[in-house]
From TrEMBL, chain A:
Domain Dehydrogenase E1 component: 65-342
Superkingdom of origin: Bacteria
One GO MF term: pyruvate dehydrogenase (acetyl-transferring) activity
Keywords recorded for this protein, A-Z: Oxidoreductase, Pyruvate, Thiamine pyrophosphate
Protein name: Pyruvate dehydrogenase E1 component alpha subunit
Keyword RNA-binding: no
Entries under Pfam families matching the protein: E1_dh (PF00676)
Annotated organism of origin: Nocardioides daedukensis
TrEMBL record, chain B:
Biological source species: Nocardioides daedukensis
Keywords recorded for this protein, A-Z: Oxidoreductase, Pyruvate, Thiamine pyrophosphate
A Pfam family per the record: Transket_pyr
This enzyme's EC code(s): 1.2.4.1
SMART domains: Transket_pyr (SM00861)
Name used for this protein in its record: Pyruvate dehydrogenase E1 component beta subunit
């Protein structure tokens, strides 16, 4: 009797390759051999065969300033939450390089779809950080005009905005602003999301649509290792950037704590998209030094040794080290940035407390473009009901 | 010209696309196939692949990318292939489509139409015969309409596309190819968000929308032979509800029966009965009665006729109303 080729004893498990968990173990903290890096944690410039570029002293000082001010936005907002001025705050501590590198790679005509943590990218888009606080204070859902700043509303539902970004990019294609060869005209979209969002259907559907239509969108995943308390091992068995291959576009892992590398990689991906070459997935390998939000307690689920390990990779310290070593901080540069940060802190402290509560009558006004009569009626009843209290007060 | 509902919708889409180059169609199989019900037949051929977009098989992806298109200034018309397949897109519809205008303080408009062939009676397998309208009508920020005949299909779809608010557009799939009606384009349509008396009567008001309007008209004919005069109102708009003609009618007849295919519990009938009770209490001769699908999943199609409100169940409810 000849052996049955389909019988189970003929199946060799090693045909399926090595155990992926061994390839991508939970203890890996250096980002692995594929990590694109241009500035080491010690502040030394290194070179990369594909993504190397030259930076002017002015650019480097600009990155430093952006990161220090972004960190100040974060620490100030965290303090405001502790003082009861904000209901909640989503911290970005440790992710400054990922956001500033990505944010500064944008051109004015590009469009950003953020999560609720992109305070550094918002800074790069010229949004007053005070305008970010309204959502967290509960007075509005974000005060900036998305169309004016080319920076969408913060999106709370995880991953939903990745589809919006893809659709917006498809709109750009139809508007003829992709692949024209005119630098001021060609545009792209960047969609931000986290490692947790990579598990969402919408993110994966976004990848499929973008690949299908070759949409000019850069998927920028900040892998900060934690989705609240769920570790990256709960989201994936392979490095996230490798997923791109399965969708049919390039993926790259960049040191998310290295602002130079993040800038270089994002700029290349955006340029690729603007030229009409389609989507790219960037995995910015970083670490969330703070909590998920101010309601979270990371000491319950992660080791302090990990946090200490990542402190050594601080994105600001390494640029500062580089600037000092190369004599780029003369003329009181560091002090002037510190002074600016203090002023920004003051602006946020004072401004936050004076953010006005919205007029309750406004609840009704902007639900629809054209307000239905039944809602007008509810509003009128509400106004009359409230007015009845002041009339009672006046007559008493 | 005599047209079917399917033809009316197809003509309405074509007219909207001719009138406004920002109108796009997106969905599964809407291009070369013309949609599984052929509602988009011939449109890709005439308007191209950039405007009639055959999409991957992913409902959340279709609606979510349409949100992005709308943000970029387009007016996407999305086709959900069947009612029961809208649920994967439910999050995008109720959390994003419905709320973006409010969230952005009106700065970002969401002029999107989500077309859903809905209801049963076509002998389909499960998930192909559902009536999810109450789930969307319960969501502030969405407008929900249902057409019941070819002429309304032609006009209401164009009006929905012209609206700057997102509209869930329900199409009674068992009527697509059922009856023909005369379309006279010189007769201008009623506003989109209005209900309409489609048959006058004096003794009881039948309220319905979509596929069961036809059932109610048949019931009115049958009741007439028994000497009862039933008024039939096609609600047409479910959110907002246009209660004006309804209240006026019920104050006159003193009796109302609401008919729909969806589950009765917490369905549109509950809201309508509640509003009638609040506003016409002293005119009522009987409680407002509801006829609908049972509070069960949609059954296997061999027994769907027992589930769907038919002529006899409507007439039975009419009899019960007169027993008070």
């Amino acid at each position: 009797m000849s052996p049955d080729p389909t019988s189970t004893d003929q199946v060799r498990t090693d045909q399926f390759g090595p155990d992926l968990v061994e390839v991508f173990g939970p203890s890996q903290q250096d980002g692995g051999p594929d990590l694109v890096q241009l500035l080491t944690p010690e502040g030394e410039r290194v070179h990369h065969p594909d993504f190397d570029m030259d930076f002017s002293a002015e650019q480097l000082r600009g990155f430093y300033r952006d990161m220090v001010l972004t960190r100040r936005i974060d620490t100030e907002a965290t303090a405001l939450q502790r003082h009861g001025e904000l209901g909640i705050w989503a911290q970005l501590l440790g992710q400054e390089a990922a956001q500033i590198g990505a944010g500064r790679a944008l051109r004015p005509q590009d469009y950003v779809f953020p999560t609720y943590r992109e305070h550094g990218v918002a800074w790069c888009r010229g949004i007053d950080p005070l305008d970010l606080l309204g959502l967290f204070r509960g007075v509005d859902h974000g005060r900036w005009d998305p169309a004016e700043k080319n920076f969408g509303q913060y999106t709370i539902v995880i991953g939903a905005q990745v589809l919006h970004a893809t659709g917006y990019a498809m709109g750009m294609q139809r508007d003829g602003v992709v692949g024209t060869g005119e630098p001021d005209r060609d545009a792209a979209v960047i969609a931000h999301f986290g490692d947790g969002a990579s598990s969402q259907g919408d993110v994966n559907e976004g990848f499929i649509f973008a690949a299908s239509y070759n949409a000019p969108v850069v998927f920028f995943c900040q892998n900060n290792q934690w989705a609240i308390s769920e570790p990256i091992e709960r989201q994936t068995r392979i490095p996230l950037y490798q997923r791109a291959l399965g969708f049919g576009f390039p993926g790259v892992r960049v040191d998310g704590n290295d602002v130079l590398a993040t800038y270089a990689v994002t700029q290349a991906a955006l340029q690729r998209a603007r030229e009409g070459q389609g989507p790219t997935l960037i995995e910015a390998y970083t670490y969330r030094m703070g909590a998920h939000t101010t309601t979270d307690d990371p000491t319950r689920y992660r080791l302090s040794a990990d946090v200490e390990h990542w402190k050594l990779k601080d994105p600001i310290a390494r640029v500062e080290a580089y600037l000092k070593r190369n004599g780029l901080v003369e003329g009181g540069f560091l002090e002037s940035v510190q002074q600016e940060a203090n002023e920004l802190g003051h602006h946020l402290r004072e401004g936050c407390k004076s953010l006005p509560d919205p007029d309750p009558r406004g609840i009704f006004d902007l639900v629809y473009d054209e307000m239905p009569e039944e809602l007008t009626q509810q509003r009128d009843e509400f106004i009359a009901y409230h007015a009845s209290f002041s009339e009672e007060g006046a007559s008493a | 010209m005599k047209i079917t509902l399917a033809k009316g919708l197809n003509m309405g889409l074509r007219k909207a696309m001719e009138d406004d180059p920002k109108v796009l169609i997106m969905g599964e199989d809407v291009g070369t196939l013309g949609g599984v019900f052929r509602i988009t037949d011939g449109l890709q051929k005439d308007f191209g692949e950039d405007r009639v977009i055959d999409s991957p098989l992913a409902e959340s992806g279709i609606v979510g990318t349409a949100v992005g298109m709308a943000m970029r200034g387009y007016r996407p018309v999305v086709e959900i292939q069947f009612d029961g397949f809208v649920y994967p897109a439910y999050d995008q519809i109720v959390c994003q489509v419905a709320k973006i205008h409010f969230r952005s303080k009106g700065k970002t408009k969401m002029p999107m139409v989500i077309r859903i062939p809905f209801g049963g009676g076509i002998g389909a397998v499960e998930h192909h015969s559902e009536s999810p309208e109450a789930q969307f009508a319960h969501t502030p920020g969405l407008k929900v309409v249902a057409c019941s005949n070819p002429v309304d299909g032609y006009w209401m779809l164009q009006q929905a596309i012209a609206s700057d608010d997102p509209v869930i557009f329900l199409e009674p799939k068992r009527q697509y190819h059922a009856d023909k009606a005369e379309l006279d384009e010189s007769v201008l349509p009623a506003p989109l968000f209005t209900s309409r008396v489609v048959k006058s009567g004096t003794d009881l008001t039948l309220l319905s929308y979509g596929p069961t309007v036809k059932t109610c008209l048949k019931a009115a004919d049958a009741a007439a032979s028994e000497g009862r005069s039933l008024e039939v109102i096609d609600l047409r708009t479910l959110s907002p509800l246009d209660m004006g003609p309804v209240l006026e009618s019920v104050r006159r007849t003193g009796r109302a029966v609401v008919v729909h295919e969806a589950h009765v519990n917490l369905g549109m009938g509950s809201e309508i009965a509640s509003r009638i009770t609040e506003q016409c209490f002293f005119s009522l001769e009987a409680p407002v009665l509801r006829v609908g699908g049972f509070d069960t999943p949609y059954p296997p199609s061999r027994i769907e006729e027992d589930y769907l409100p038919d002529l006899d169940r409507v007439l039975d409810a009419v009899d019960r109303s007169f027993e008070f």
